[in-house]
Amino acid sequence: MEMLSTCIIPPTSRHTHTVIFLHGRGDTAGNFMPSFQEWRDSESRSLPDLFPSVQWVFPQSELRSAARFPAARMSQWFDTWNIAKLHEREELQIEGLRESVTSIRVLVNKEAKRLGGQWENVVLAGLSQGGATAAHTMLSVTRGLGGLMVFSGRMPFPGRTLADTRLVLDLADVPEEDSAVRATPVLVQHCVDDPLSRIKNGREVRDSLSSFGAQVEWREYPTGGHWFHSPDGIQDATRWLRAHVFKENQG
Known about the structure:
CATH class: Alpha Beta
Family: Belongs to the AB hydrolase superfamily. AB hydrolase 2 family.
Structural class: alpha/beta
Pfam families: Abhydrolase_2 (PF02230)
Largest sheet: 7 strands, mixed
CATH architecture: 3-Layer(aba) Sandwich
Organism: Triangularia setosa
GO molecular function, one term: palmitoyl-(protein) hydrolase activity
Domain Phospholipase/carboxylesterase/thioesterase: 7-244
C-alpha cells in the first residue's frame, strides 16, 4: 500500500517517542499542524515545546467522494452521510475507514521500527474524524501502543462488542483477543459546547473503549467548541502523557 504523505515536527532532542496525529474532516495535514502548535498551556507552551524528544507526525487523508454531495471530493478519512445523525447510513463509513486504518497501521509499524521496535513509544491521536479513525486503528493493532488520545471525536459503529466492532472493517492480521487494547492507555477530551461533534459522541467513545477493556481517562470542559481546550486541556494532556507514556513519577 502507498504510504500516506505526512507533515512532521521533528524532535529537538534525541528521538524517543512518536505521536501520529490525525486531522479532522475537511482539513489537511499542512493546515492542521500549525494550528495544533497554537494550542498552549497557561505558560504559553505547546506540546512540542513540552516534549522535545517527540517526533510529531501528521498524516494527510485521501481526497474522497462524498455520497451526499456526488460532485464533491474532500479531504476525509471516511465518508459520513449526516454529521448531525451519525448513525444514519453508517455503512458509508466502512470503505474509507478500512482504507484509512490500513494506511495508519503501516505508518505505526514504520514509526515503531524507527524506534527500535518499541511500539510502546508510539502514540496515536486525532481530532474529530481523525480521532474516530485513530480509535479504530488502535483496536486493530497487534501490540499495545504508548497511548491513544481522542479530541472532539466519536466512535463509528458503537454499541457492539470488540469482536463485532473489528468485524465491521474485517481487516487482516487483527488479533482475536484484547491484550493490545488493555495495554494501551487512552485519553478522551471533549468540550460540552462542541456544535459539530456533540458531547454525547465523546462520552460514547469513552464508554465504548472502556467496555472493550481500555483504561480510559475522560475530561470534559464547559467551553472550547469543536477544538482543543486551552489551557486546561493541554495541561491535562501533558500530565497524562507524562504519567502514562513517559512514565514519569508524578509525585
